[in-house]
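I am sending you the entry underneath: sequence plus fold tokens. Let me know what the token row says about the fold:
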Amino acid sequence: MSVLAAIAVLALLIVVHELGHFVAARSQGIHVNRFSVGFGPALFKYQGPETEYAVRAIPLGGYVGFPDDDPDSKIPDNDPNLLRNRPVLDRAIVISAGVIANLIFAYFLLVGQIVTVGVPEFNYQPGVLVPKVVTEQTSVAAKAGLKSGDIVLAVDGKELGATEASLQTLKQIIQDHPNQTLPLTIQRGDQTLSLRVKPEPGADGNGRIGVQLAPHGNVVRHRTTNLVEALSKGAVEFQRIVVLTVDGFGKLVSNFGQTASQLAGPVKIVEIGANIAQSDAGSLFQFAALISINLAIINILPLPALDGGQLAFLLIEGLRGKPLPSRIQDGVMQTGLMVLLGLGIFLIVRDTANLAWVQNLFQ
């Protein structure tokens, strides 16, 4: 059920994106002949007065079709309500509407979360948690007497307070002191202990002790039924996620070699969503908002076969006073589509191979 919930979230976001294109076109009187959710064989079709609506077998995409590209269309080529015959601004509105719809939907998802289940916030407590000693008998930490569940209250005389920075402070001190003994103050249940640990240098020269570290505290949810407050808090959370997402894309581009492995395809997204649905269904709001914002930002990038690529062509047309030759546009779009399809297939194969149940088949 958790997997189905994650797939449903992804399909919903695609519907929202395509619905943005559809509404923007129809509200301007532009002809639309297809609205499809998914790809592949049609599971359900309905022919409206002008538009065919379809749900297809593979729910990892969708499209809005225009008679401009349909050789069987009976609409005359000079019809002013064909998308290609509309002014640049009208077409730009239609193309960008999917991105705008995803951003608006993400914002209201966050508002809905605040009103219904509340936004999770981490309530920090003093110290840094040691969830696990990696190698229970041979690691530096184990030899020093550290155990899973311990809380590090201080290191080298520096107290680790109830703040987000404490985790990074402890990590940094350990990394900066290879082959140097560090005194630790440890809380273990009701006891306060003093231990001494000597980080060993790793391959990069940084000190390490063989433990996992995590913030110490618990998650609390803040919920409000005040609509004005919810709209305000939703805007703050929306801005935070957008800034983090844009920053993440910036790091991906500027440091591609180190960050490329973090790229996730639809299989990985569904896996993450399924884990969230299983452990904390309320967080599906934030998960859906995050994916919706990512979908919007990816689509607005000026890459061929994406909305941003089409907007780039429109910008060139506006500056030139006429569109680029169709052979150039078709060539760029087809090349971009092949690259994106290749990347998508690679991510699907890689992420599928990394699934736990798939790896268990080969053990």
